[in-house]
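Checklist before submission:
- one chain only
- standard amino acids only
- sequence pasted in full

Submission:
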Amino acid sequence: MGYEARFRCVAGCAGTYPLDQVIYRCPTCGELLEVAHDIEALRDRSAAAWMRLFDERWMSTRWPYGSGVWGKKEWVAPGVRDECVVSMAEGGSNLFWAERYGSSLGVGDLWLKLCGNSHTGSFKDLGMTVLVSVVRQMITDGKPIRAIACASTGDTSAALAAYCAAAGIRAVVLLPKGKISTAQLVQPLANGALVLALDTDFDGCMALVQKLADEPGVYLANSMNSLRLEGQKTVALEMVQQFDWQVPDWVIIPGGNLGNVSALGAGFEMMMTLGLITKRPRICVAQAQAANPLYRAYKQGWEKFEAMTAEPTEASAIRIGNPVSVRRAIRTLKAFDGVVEQASEEELSEAAAAADRTGTYACPHTGVALAALEKLVARREIKKGDRAVVISTANGLKFTDFKVRYHEGRIPGTSGRGRNVPVELPPDYEAVKRAVLSDLDRSR
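Returned file contents:
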C-alpha cells in the first residue's frame, strides 16, 4: 500500500496541502502547519510488524535506511524518492546511561540521548535531512527554488549549510553577530553558505528571514516549516526502540524556538496511535532563565503568552524570546502532563560540569536540561525508580569556549564547584610523583 503525508493547519482549518507546495502558514487563519500522515494506510502493518521492520533497518547498509530518520521513512516523508534523499547517516545516536551522575542525584535509571553525535554536531541534522531532501526533489521536478534560507543561533545554520552543500543547493544563513560560538560560525562558512552576520538577536534574524522567504525562489528552513519536525520526531521513536520499545517516564528537553518539543510529542503520539506503545512519558521543557517566555506562561497557568527580549546566556542556541512554535509546544505539554523549568547561568554551568565529571561533555543547552532535571528530582516529581531521559541537543565540542571559561573561573556569577585546571610543573620526576600521589590521597 502507498503511504501519503500532507500539510494541514494546526488549528484544524479545513484543507490539506502537498509537501512539495511552498507554504508555511494556514491561508485561512495564519497559524502554522503540521504534517499529517494517512494513519489508516499505515495500519496495513501491525504494531509488531512496524517494530520488526524498524529493527531490521537499524544501522543497516541499505540506502537510505541506515539513517535513523530514513529507516522510518514511511512515518516521516514517504513521498520522497530514494534518489532524492540527502543523508549523512544522521540519527542512531547513543542513548548514554548516566549511571554515576544519576546515582549522585538518587536516580539510577537516568539516560542522555546524545543527539549531538551527528554529522554537524546537533539534533538539527535530523530535521534538515528531511527538508533538504524534499527541496531537492522539488528542484528535480522543476520547482523554481534557488536557495534555502534560515535564521539561526548556530546549529541550524551548520546543518543547513552541510546538507545544502551535499545536495548542490545554495544556502543562505542569517546569524546574530557576536552571539554564537566560533565553531558554529565556522561551520556554515566552511560549507560555502552565504552567511549574513546581523547586528540583532535571533528574533530579529527570524523576522527578516520570514520576509526573505516571500521572495521568489527562496525557501524557508526554520522550524516553523514543519518538514523539519518530521525528522526530529524520530528522536522519540529511537529512544523507545533503544529501550526495546518501552517508554521512559520522563523526557527533559531544552527549549528555544520550541519546535523540538512538538516534534518529540508527535513521535510519541504516532507510536500511541499505531499501537507500538501504550503510554505517554511526561515532558519537561527546560529554558534558560535569561530567555524563558514559555516558563513565564506556564507559571501563569497558560493564561497568556508574552514574547520577551532574551538576555545574554551561555545557552546561546536557545536565546530566543519569541519562539515561533510556542502554540504547538503548549499543546504538546498539555497532552503530556508537561511542566516547564528554568535554569540560571550558575545552575546550567554547574549541572553541565557535574555531568562532565561522570563522563559526558555537555553543551550549555544540555546543562539547562540537566539543571531542570536536578530541580525535578529535588521536588520529587521525578522519583527514585523513574526512568528519565535528557535530550542532549548538541556536541559539547562546539562550545569549547564555554568549557574553558568555566574551568578558568570566567563565567560571572558561577561558583565553579567543578573547576579543574592544569597543574604546571617542571619536568622533574619527584615533582610529578608528589603531585600524583597527593591527588590520589585526596580522592580516597
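Reviewer check: The mean pLDDT is 95.
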